[in-house]
Specification:
Order of helices and strands: HHHH
Number of strands: 0
Number of helices: 4
Shape: elongated
Mean pLDDT: 89
Radius of gyration: 17 Å
Number of domains: 1
Largest sheet: none
């Protein structure tokens, strides 16, 4: 799921970087970035509580959307989208470049 969210963030960020010149890419970029933010929010919580992962993912999306909207109201709308797109590309490339962590396997209580 982490790789899919990173790819969505990469594609959505690229859409927002190009959006000041091609208006049709703003909405697809927003949808792809929403998927990426949902994935990032879900990864903040342990995998054992699915309901909590869903709740945190939606709340994280609301937080990021709120901050982005405040910035868009305060500054140049297209400039904020472009900068947010660049940030999404950088974070997505970093997430894709990171190797997955090995899963720790329990050897039982008497393992040496």
């Amino acid at each position: 799921m982490r790789a899919a969210a990173a790819v969505a963030g990469l594609l959505g960020g690229l859409c927002w970087v190009v959006a000041p010149w091609v208006d049709a890419l703003a909405w697809p970029g927003a949808v792809l970035l929403a998927v990426a933010v949902l994935g990032a929010g879900a990864s903040l919580v342990s995998r054992s509580a699915v309901w909590l992962r869903c709740l945190v993912a939606v709340c994280f999306l609301a937080l990021v959307g709120s901050v982005l909207q405040v910035l868009r109201d305060s500054l140049d709308d297209q400039g904020v989208l472009a900068v947010a797109g660049v940030a999404a590309v950088v974070v997505s490339v970093a997430a894709l470049a990171r190797r997955p962590e090995p899963v720790a396997r329990s050897r039982g209580s008497h393992a040496a």
